[in-house]
Structures are given as C-alpha cells and as structure tokens.
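User: Before I run my own analysis I want an independent prediction to cross-check against. Here's the chain; please return only the structure tokens and, at the end, one sentence I can use as a sanity check.
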Amino acid sequence: MIGIVKEKVGNIPSLIVAESEDKDKALPTVIFFHGFTSAKEHNLPIAFLLAEKGYRVILPDSEFHGERELETSERKRQISFWDIVLRNVHELGEIKEALDADSLILDDRIGVAGTSMGGITTSAALTQYDWIKSAVILMGSPRITTFAKTLVESFKKGGDLPVTDEQIEVLYDQLETCDLSLQPEKLNGRPLLFWHGGQDAVVPFDHSFTFYDEVKEQYENVEHIKFIKEANAGHKVSRHAILELVKWFHTYL
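Assistant: Structure tokens:
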C-alpha cells in the first residue's frame, strides 16, 4: 500500500509518498518541485508511480504556494518568482540534510525533478549540489538569466515593475551563480532528461532544446542525456512525460 504522510521536512511543508511498510527505511529518493501557482498535492500522480517502483518521493511546497500561500497577492507572487526559485534551491539543501539526519536515503541515491518553475529549480540545483545523482526537467529552462531578463522586459513594457534597476542587477548576479547554461560542466555526466512541449507559450522551448544540443557532446555516455519533444504539446505535462520520468529514474537512480 502506498502511503502519503503530510509533515515538515526540515521546516518545509511537504508530502512524503512511499510504500507504507517502508516509510522508515532507507530508500532511493526523489524530490519533486511543483510549478508556479501550483502546490505539492498536484504532483501526487507522479509520486504514486515512483513509489510503486520503490522510491520515496518528497513533494515540498514552495514559498507563497500551498500551505505557505498565506495572504500573498498574485502580484506579490509574480514579482517574487525568481526569489522563490532561489529559495527552492536553498531549501533543497535543507531537505537533503533532514533526510540524511534520519538515514532515509539509500546509498546516496537521490534525484531531483520538477515542472515549469520546478524544472527551472532543478536546473539551478544541478549547479549547486553534486550529490544529485539524476534529474528530470519538465518544461523548465536551464537559461535562467536569459529567461529572467525576458520576463523583466515584459514587466517593464507593462509599466508596473516596483523594483529598482539596482535591485534587478543584483538579481541577475544571483541567478548567474546558479545558471546551468553558464556552467554546463557542473553536469559532470550526470543522467539528465528534458521534456518540453513544442507549443509551450510560457517557458521557451528553445531554451532547453538548444542547451541540450550544446551539452550532449560533453557526455561520454550519450544515453545519460535525453530530450523528449512533444511537438503539439503546450505548457502542460502529458501522461507520456510522466511515464518517461518514472522510467528515467527507474533506470538511472
């Protein structure tokens, strides 16, 4: 029986999904980050399929989302998008420390994945944590500084960006430190799967595809990096993408 436990991992409200009889055992573990305006519960189907394969799955709520939404306005959340991503990356380290403290990760087998904002988080995390053994990026961008500049320009055209140019430059500097496109060597041959819809109007398809096309030459084992395009898919994860994610971790974690 697959069990779902709602509790804080570190200080982050999360759902923990695993076989009930194995919930206190060391297991290979996947941490999955949800997308913008979503919440941890929305990814339970993915967690269930992974748990069936013997994984523990941690589904955290990002800041200003789910249990942490509080009275946050939609405007505040939009403006905080990149701060949320950076906080996710930091909190991933906290989650790992909490799991290690309870000896819950089997043989250091830990993977990270996410959808949209969660995929962006995953790409950034790969620059910071060499303990990530395998990763899946669904509809995310590894070119986070470029993407941030695009979004800032669109806000400026709307005439309503309540931050200074100096604050924006500080943000760009922060993003560059965890921009995977600026430090692709940090992948170090780790298994990485991309999935992206060809009709995505939210996160640019070409960000992930051109990055994949550039870095695949770095891989001695070409099977360790893969890009799946669904030509007619928009900004919504398909069942095919979910099954490919499960297959990826089952193979490389």
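Sanity check: The chain is about 40% helix and 20% strand.
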